[in-house]
Design goal:
Helices cover 25% and strands 38% of the residues. By secondary structure, it is α+β, with helices and mostly antiparallel strands. Strands 1, 2, 3, 4, 5 and 6 form a six-stranded mixed β-sheet that branches. Keywords: Hydrolase.
């Protein structure tokens, strides 16, 4: 039997040119590729915010992607993250885009 990985949750908010450039869609694709759950959404302030849940190594990979890559047409000026909070189980069953 394999070792059960501990789960964590991290909130994020990304600033810059992140709306109207398919940032949410690319975030969803990357999260699904990594097997992470959660959501993301546009804010009225022009940012994208969300939550990701999963093993800490995959959350770290997603954090780097959110901070430095994003969608091809995005310009990331600032990325804010909460510390990884331990969770006992997933709160979401997939990664979705909230509208």
């Amino acid at each position: 039997m394999g070792k059960v990985k501990k789960l964590y949750s991290m909130m994020f908010e990304i600033y810059g040119r992140v709306q109207g450039v398919y940032f949410r869609k690319h975030t969803q694709i990357k999260a699904k590729e990594l097997g992470l759950y959660g959501w993301c959404m546009n804010t009225k302030d022009g940012t994208v915010k969300g939550i990701v849940e999963g093993p800490v190594d995959l959350i770290s990979e997603m954090r780097i992607w959110l901070q430095h890559k994003g969608s091809p047409r995005s310009i990331i000026e600032k990325a804010v993250f909460t510390s990884n909070e331990p969770i006992s189980a997933y709160n979401f069953s997939k990664f979705t885009i909230k509208r």
